Amino acid sequence: MNQNRSTASPSPNTAAATAPARPGLDLIPWPIRTDRLVLRRLRPTDLDRLWEYRSLPEVHQWLGGGSITDFAAFEARFPSLCEHGIAVELDGRVIGDLRAVVGDAWSQVGMEHLAKNTEAVLGWVFDPEAAGRGYATESVGALITACFAHLGVRRVSGSCFAVNEPSARLMKRLGMRLEEHSRKTALHRSGEWMDTMMFGVLADEWPER
Ligand SMILES: CC(C)(COP(=O)(O)OP(=O)(O)OC[C@H]1O[C@@H](n2cnc3c(N)ncnc32)[C@H](O)[C@@H]1OP(=O)(O)O)[C@@H](O)C(=O)NCCC(=O)NCCS
Questions:
Q1: Whose CA is nearest to atom 21 of ligand 1?
Q2: Among 32, 40, 44, 202, which residue's CB has the most CB atoms within a 10 Å radius?
Q3: 170 Cβ below 6 A of ligand 1
């Protein structure tokens, strides 16, 4: 559990000064080993490998940041990817990367201190060469387990463009619940306003694995 949460000040005036640091991924005991995969922290030397699959048009079309043609821009933001990023290895080769960012739940005024750092938002990107064999399901499932066990969050969520069916199927397959399907709320770089879907799962709904 994150012990800092209970010591945070509820006062808006002092919150900034006393706010606890976000629980970082270093609270998780790495590496995580699953039946077939190894999950470890992303590191600067993963830059070229991630660029290989993240810059593919069929992958990049669903991603939020960076430019599809600009390696220098990707390199410049890579340290921030490493801060929240997890590499997924199969037989020593990176086949995908995950992301987990801890944040605050919404709360009414006066309750902010109890809502701090209670949620984790996850993301995932895999090399298409590794698709269709359950690697994303296996690794994201292990990451959700680790978030509940080590980051002290009460809810894990993920979201995607509604037309990104593999991503929505992944969340359903994991047992996450569709909690929001909003109409044309996200502007894709194609210029189209797209529907988005958000899925979530609570700690007490997540089975022991
Ligand atoms: C989203 C993404 C990770 C999903 O990848 P995926 O290959 O469909 O997911 P998995 O690796 O879990 O494989 C599941 C598929 O393999 C099949 N499969 C085979 N063996 C399996 C196993 N042992 N366990 C689970 N599924 C298995 C499943 O039936 C499923 O196929 P289906 O979706 O046709 O039913 C991938 O499409 C991706 O990286 N896309 C680009 C980036 C992106 O969109 N990121 C998310 C932005 S919101």
A1: 134
A2: 32
A3: yes
